[in-house]
Amino acid sequence: MSPAAESKKSGTVWPLFLGGMALGAVLVAGAFSLRKGDPEEETKADEAAWSVAAEKSEAAVAAESDPGPEPGTRDDSRDGEVERGRELSKTICSGCHLYPEPALLDRANWALEVLPDMAIFMGLSDGDPYDELGAQQRVRDAGIIPTSPILESIEDWRAIVSYYLHEAPDVALPQPERAPIAIGLDAFEAVVPVQMQSPQTSLVRIDPERRALYVGEATTNTLAVFDAGLQRMGFLEFDSPPSDLILKEDILYVLQMGDLLPSDDLNGAISFVGRPGSSAPGGGGNFIKELPRPVDMEFVDLNGDGLEDIVVCGYGNILGSLLWFENKGSGKFEQHVIEERAGAIKVHVRDFNKDGRPDLFVMFAQSKEGIYIFENAGNGDFLMTPLVEKHPVWGNSWFELVDMDGDGDEDILATNGDNGDHVKYVPPFKNYHGVRIYLNDGKFNFSESWFFPINGAYKALARDFDQDGDLDIASIAYFADFRKSREESFVYFENQGGMNFVPATFKQTLAGRWLTLDAGDLDGDGDLDIVLGALNEGPSIVPAMLKQRWHESGPPFVLLKNRLK
Predict the structure, then answer these.
(1) 262: which DSSP letter?
(2) Which of 2, 235, 452, 564 matches a 20 to 30 Å C-alpha distance to 485?
(3) What is the dihedral of CA 33, 139, 271, 236, to 10 degrees?
(4) CA 153 vs CA 23, 89, 156: distances in Å
(5) How far is CA 509 from CA 190, 468, 482, in A?
(6) What's the whole-number average pLDDT of the chain?
(7) Which pTM was predicted?
């Protein structure tokens, strides 16, 4: 029975921003200010900041080292400190997450972003550590920062710093070679609507049954409804940006993020409301409140009592939780915590062990990043098992469970490219960002079998768009390299079989900066269309002309109409 019938650093995050992933995924990553100044000046400022970062990086390296030996001599003491730092880091830096190798980031970002924050969480702050983090009262109350140093001496910390700054590359490592992305997508017709405002799209969702498109808007906290001809039929107002929605008959259950920017306030909520144009009641209000920046939800009867419960990914910021709300009947829900940590960004429900109880597959995108099974043991208990775990700057942003190789079991299609967690300087591109397929051996052991490098990859959907019997892929990159590789902001991969995909994009791909996407048969002609949602303001360098174009004439979304039928 539905709830309506019973009355829904690693870094700070922008989903990942970000629906279905809640903002497509979340703009869950990265703390930054939304600037609305002159685009050209902003770009110059970004580029200047990056130059300053590089210069300060060298200064930071020098500050952590002695003047050095005379030419032709060996500095045994420095070599010893670096080696000691290596050994210490293996112990200290893998206590809460997978070990981060120095090559994952360039020296500037280690020196100016990551190591200073690491020092705070090791109890080495000179001032109020919570003030230095800009943390809210909930974080302070949680007492997550040690009151005294966890290292035996400041020399140990200096050794760790020396090791990372000595071993890190001067600049970010280059992206691996990839197949060229063709410009031109004959299989789809791009329909670009007229701009209604400077777009801040937090959610797009196709409802194929009613041939409707839902578009969440973060500035106005509204959910607009469009018909298949892209005529707006109406809109709904909420307290905060819509990040996910579930439609049951004529009732919309809308997940509200609470705060688009990183926050640990409990401002998120779930509302239900009658679908515009239906005979359902016009309002129902918030029936679950005080959620930690939620970005995704699923309805499922977890305890077998015949009532649908709700699973919520409370991404949060420094704090967060994976939650389930037990349906007690009569519109009442009781909150339970499955996992107390930030970064839950996407959940899928499956009975993986065939015991009759629904289990949860969940992606986390903060600190200890990874994809996990939460096995439903009954009585509200869940047993967590890692499927894929990654280091804390990996940048998880989305995943799906789909049978990519046609062997009858579900594999993982995943993206990692969240690059908004660098708050002081321009974030570097990371050569491990992209779209991946992890194949299932039939026993839920997953191994990477395909990787396509894409800067800032944010979401990917696997569907049989050309109806040839295999799954193609549509992907977006919110943190794309808009200077050198603009075509990667949207890529359509046509499946040629044998894990071979041909990448292409449409000519108008730069009409917006794509935060979220969805696929479905919007016009009812029997094939799958694609919709991209634009949130055009965010961290990273964007050319001035492109930024200005987005600001003046950027559409909130673009529809790619499938030409197959």
Answers:
(1) S
(2) 564
(3) -10
(4) 43, 14, 5
(5) 9, 25, 11
(6) 86
(7) 0.88
